[in-house]
Amino acid sequence: MDSATKDEMQPSLPPGSSCPGPEWPEQERAEQLARGAALKWASGIFYRPEQLARLGQYRSREVQRTCSLEARIKSVVQSYLEGVKTGVWQLAQAFEAVQGTREALDQAHGLLQGMVEATETLKPLREQVAQHKQLQVLSQLLPRLRAVPAAVAHTRTLIGAQRLLEAYVCLRELEQLQEETWAPLGGLELPVFEGLGPLAEALGQAVEAAAGVAGQLAREDPALLVAAVRVAEVDARHTTSLELPPRDWRRRCLQALQEGLERTHFGTPLLLEPGALAGWLEALRVALPAELATAEALVAPCCPPHYKVVRLWAHTLHSGLRRCLQQLLEGPKLGAADAFALLHWTLHVYLGPEMMGSLELGPEADVSQLEPLLTPENIEQLEAMFVTQIQVNVAQWLQKALDGEVAEWNREQEPGTDSSGFYHSPLPAIVLQILEENIRVTSLVSESLQRRVHGMALSELGTFLRSSSLSVLQPDGAGSGDLALVEAGLDELQRRICRLVLEELLAELQPLFEALPSRRWLSSPELLDDVCERTVRFCQDFRRVRNPAVQLLLAEAERTVVLQYLRALMQGRLVCRGADERIQAAQRLQNDAAQLRELFLGLGLEESVQCAPVLLSLRDLLNLRDPMLLGLEVAGLRQKFPDVSEDHVSALLDLRGDVSREQRLAALSSLQAGPQPSLSAGQRALFSLVPVPTPALSSCLPSGPCA
């Protein structure tokens, strides 16, 4: 195909269009590859001479193939060019449409600008139209608007006359008229309606006032109470288009019911005189159940069921009483009687069948959800307050009773006796009876208070002698250890009393013991006979004392005699001149011990508690023949009587009269040898109560207390 034919076959392109030319790198590369492949094929086909004869056939076949390919390429290119032409035409049409739309929009914008200007010119006209409509509404409502001031005054009159339902109807009519004028006037508030807000508040206050005395109205004027509640309920369901704050008369009505109830019973501050709290609590015991009965029988029928009047009454009274009691406890300290009355009333009476636990109080009261009137801290405070003041009162009473008892026993006449002839005082029985009664009364309140008062009673009993009636104060199941402290104090007090009683005996015996020991004492028992005679005469009055007090008196008397005997021996009034006098002294100690033993056995003192056997131990020390063995004897004495000292042993060695300095030091050294003994359980000190004159330094150990 020549070049002219090829030029005729090229499609005509619109101006501005382009197609890929031979300058494309891909086209050149494709042509090079095609030429290379053709040369390779031709060199392979025509490599041998016999193949050249068929060259014409090959040429004709390739020409056909080339024509076919060109035809196919032309068809494809033509199709492509037609699609491009169509697209260009469509773009041109779209451009023309966009241009038309832009022109239309410009025209619309101009029209709108004209309409805005026209609207601005119509604004005064619109205002006049609105004013015309308002004037039209006002002209229609003018007769009713003129009657508003009179209606407001009439409504106030109705409120003052407590005609609450009629007043509420008038108020709603006025508010409805206000709504009818509010929307057409565009929310404009007319001055004629300025009094509606205070008028509605006055009606709300009237409703609150009626609810605040609901109990009284339920008895005297239930219609007024019903009217107040109905006004509050109807207004709670009312809706309005006016932009007014909610009145919430239902909540205010319920709040007024509660505040009025609390004000009736707990409105005034509780300022009671000491001891007057019980009367106030008794008044509440009567008033609160009556108030609940009134609520159930009279107030509840006047109110809607959802008010739950009985429950409201019960919980309001409870919370008011609880708050009142808290204020009471935060004030001045209560007396013992008031504290006890408050504890008993709150823990037993208030929850008992006469009040909140009454069977007549139905389940609608819901008393199971009530909080305790007193917290555990309040109960602890009241119990401590009660016990402290009771302890002060008991201590004062006991002191007065003891003063009276002392005055009674100091009279010139003989004390009273019981049917058996023993001296008798009713004071211990009276004291125990009073303390027992206090403990028994506190059991009506709580176990914790009873335990506190019981402990107080035991501590106060430390000032009285123990008696067989003391067991009535011991709670069931309590161990004997609970009374150990009291018993120890009572024992010590009894011994002190015994010492006071025996001071007279001691004054009589001291002059007699001034002559002991002596040469006369060695040869005659007259000195101890005088001691025994005066002791027997003094102890004759003990026959009117019951056991175990008489045993204690006799034991202390015998102990007093023995101590005076030992005191006399330690004074160094006698020094034995030889073995014969030492034997006499030892024998005298044995005889005196036997005489004292028989004396107090005859008076009724048990032998196991007597102190006279100490004289037998001293006898052994004097009766020892070999002074070299004194160390063993002194060690044995120390084992029996751990409180014997070097001074006591030195005084006894001086009484022997035959102990050299070396023997004395050896004997005293035995006191320091080995472990030092101590008083056994139940053993009382003896030698430590006996004073000894200060010995000479030559008779002391270098490490002894007298060195």
UniProtKB/TrEMBL annotation:
What InterPro entries does the database record attribute to this sequence?
A: EXOC3/Sec6 (IPR010326), EXOC3/Sec6_C (IPR042532)
**Which of UniProt's keywords are assigned here?**
Exocytosis
Q: Which Pfam families match?
A: Sec6
User: Can you cite an annotated GO cellular component?
Assistant: exocyst
GO MF term list = SNARE binding
Q: Which GO terms describe its biological process?
A: exocyst localization; exocytosis
Q: Region annotation Disordered: residue ranges?
A: 1-29
As for family, the record states: Belongs to the SEC6 family.
Q: What is this protein called?
A: Exocyst complex component 3-like protein isoform X3
* Species of provenance: Panthera pardus (Leopard)
Q: What is this organism's lineage?
A: Eukaryota, Metazoa, Chordata, Craniata, Vertebrata
